[in-house]
Structures are given as structure tokens and as C-alpha cells.
Amino acid sequence: MSAVETISRAGRGARQGIRAFYARPLAWVALLVTSASLAYAGGGVMFWLHAIQRGEAGPPIADVWHWLFDSTLGFLALSPALFLILPGALAAVHRVGVQGSRASSAVYVALVGVVFGVVTGPGPFLHDVLVGRGTPLARLAVAVFGRDPAVAARHVEAHSTLSEMALQVLVGTPVYVATALLSLAVVQGWAGRRGSGGAA
Amino acid sequence: MIQKLLVGTDTSAAADLAVETAAALAGAREAELLVLYVRPPLDAREVFDPGKVPDPEAYLARMPSRFPAVKVRTRAEAGDPAETICQVADEEGVDVIVVGNRGTHGRRRWFLGSVPNAVVQHAPCSVFIVDTRRAQ
């Protein structure tokens, strides 16, 4: 089989897998819940680390708006990646040959969290480029949410982009694994209530 | 002359209506009925709702007792449902494929494509579409 045929077959298999995964509304609920949890809850922890603890530069707006702004951008930018990560993680569970629903769920959650942690690695760099202090998006955020004098007066620490990216992956990965576990519990709870005739 | 029918199922209530219709057609024509379960490549229920993952073996094992007047055979395969249905139909030399109409209209068709539509396009034989809306 030629390389072109192999790639074409793999691409067709991936398309079929993604289509089969999203054939159930449950998968779309899972995508929404996981994406929102990772962006807003996981993103909240990472915001606290980067903006509050490490004092990285961002728009001089109130912390709660800054978190909401960054998390919403993350939600929009990373949902397409999660669209592929969720079925990809389940396909990997199949490939590894994990038996039993608990073990499958554990491996699935770990894969989603680890891959998402790696995908968000360039986040600090992109944050500085796109919404770092003085950028057009940061000015827009200040115009929309208003300038917070306390935040504007806060000392901004300079860190190397590489160290921030490494920190993002090292700290982000366990945070995202925990958040993926939380979102799995939420989706399983929703599915269980729906199955037992609940309002959902 | 219809001697062999194939009905595709995912064990859902809607697909079961198609199975019942196929059994009635096979019984009326004294034809053989092949009930084919196709396990999709990925099923989101495996992680999000493991209790709802179908048990195709038990479902297929009940077929002879459900339709005692029909000569029934069963098969379980893994793969893309439409592609596998057409492939097995070709392999088995069936005369008619029976499928439910789930996903032939509305949003599902645009987002996900439709198994019956794909079967109609690629089938090596005639296709009978059963209206399964009352079970959807």
C-alpha cells in the first residue's frame, strides 16, 4: 500500500470515527460541558497562577473580568481542538485495549487532560501577543470592562516565554485532568438523570 | 424474486421497527432474513453513559424466538454502518436491504450525514426504507 493510500485510509477512518462519535447528542453535550469546564474552571486556576501569582502582563481590568475575558477567548479558540480531542481520546482507549468502564473512563480523562495541557502550552505566548498589555484586544477589553486602577498599579513581572509555557504544561496538565474528570462526572450525571426520566 | 433480505440495526427502538418490518416482509415471501448489527467505530456512550451501551449478542440471540416463522440469521460487524451494510449485502448476495429512515431529514442529516441515505447511494441491490419516526 502506498503512503498516499495509507494516509487517505487513515483520514477516512478518522472522519468515520468522528462522525460516529458525534452521532449521539450526548457527545455534543460532553463537548460543551468539557469545553466550558476546561476553559472557565481549569482556565480560572491557570489565570490565578499566571496573572495573580506570577504577575504577568495583561489588560488593566478587574481580575474577574480578566478571567472571564481570557476564559471566553480560550473557550472559543480551544473548542475546535476539543472537538477532535474527545473522539481521539476514546479511539486511543480502544487502541490501548482498556477493559471495563471505570478503567476506560480513567484513561479517557487522563488523555483528554494531558493532550489539552500540551495544546494549551503556547497559551502564555499567544496571550502576550494577542491580549498582552497595549495590544488592540487589551485596549478593547479596557474600553468594554473599564480600567481598574488597582490592577493597573500592580507590579508586572517579566518572565521568559519559554518558562511560562513550560509552567503552563506542567501545572496545567494535572489541573486539566482534574477538570476533565469533573466534566465527565457532570455528563454522566446528566445522562443518568435523562435515562431515569428526569427533566434533562 | 426476493429470496434474501438484510436489515441493518443498532439495536435502538427505531431500528427495531425496521427489523420487525423486514421480518414481516421476509415471512410474507418465505425469504431468508439476515439481521446485521454494525458496531460503530466510536460510541460516546462508552464513557459518558456506559449503562446504555447496547448488548448486540443478546439482542441478536433473541431474533429466532421473536420471529419463529422466518428463517433468520444474524451477524455482528464493526465499522462504518452504511459502508458495512452495503459490503455485507454484496458478500451475502441479498436481494433487498431494509433500513430505518432515522437521520434522513432535519439537522441530523446536515451535521452527521445519514446511514439510510448513504446505503441508498451505495447499495448493490434494492433498498426498502421503513418509516421509524414513531420510535424516534
In short:
The complex is a heterodimer of chains A (200) and B (136). In chain A, helix 1 crosses helix 3 (63-96).
Question: How would you describe this protein?
Answer:
In chain A, helix 2 packs across helix 3 (63-96). Chain A is mostly helical and 200 residues long. The model of chain A has no long low-confidence stretch (mean pLDDT 89). In chain A, 80% of the residues lie in helices and 0% in strands. In chain A, 34% of the residues are buried. Chain A is elongated and about 60 Å long. Chain A contains 8 helices and no strands. The termini of chain A are far apart. Chain B is an alpha/beta fold and 136 residues long. In chain B, 43% of the residues lie in helices and 24% in strands. Chain B contains 7 helices and 5 strands. In chain B, helix 1 (13-29) links the parallel strand 1 and strand 2 (32-39). In chain B, helix 5 packs parallel to helix 7. Chain B starts with a strand and ends in a 6-residue tail after the last strand. The model of chain B has no long low-confidence stretch (mean pLDDT 88). At the A-B interface, helix 1, helix 2, helix 3, helix 4 and helix 8 of A face helix 2 of B.
Task: Please list the strands of the largest sheet of chain B in the order they lie side by side.
Answer: 3-2-1-4-5
Q: Which percent bin holds the helix content of chain B? A: 40-55%
What is the string of helix and strand elements of chain A? HHHHHHHH
Inertia-based shape of chain B? globular
Separation of termini of chain A?
48 Å
Indicate the radius of gyration of chain A in whole angstroms: 19 Å
Structural class category of chain A: mainly alpha
Distance between the termini of chain B: 32 Å
Low-confidence stretches of chain B: none
Strand content of chain A: under 5%
Strand content of chain B: 15-25%
- Using only CA atoms, what is the Rg of chain B? 14 Å
| Pair of chains with the largest interface and how many residues each contributes | A-B, 29 and 20 residues
Question: How many beta-strand segments of chain A?
Answer: 0
Overall mean pLDDT score of chain B? Answer: 88
Largest sheet of chain A: none
What is the helical fraction of chain A, as a range of percent? Answer: over 70%
**Counted beta strands of chain B:** 5
* Secondary-structure class of chain B: alpha/beta
Largest sheet of chain B: 5 strands, parallel
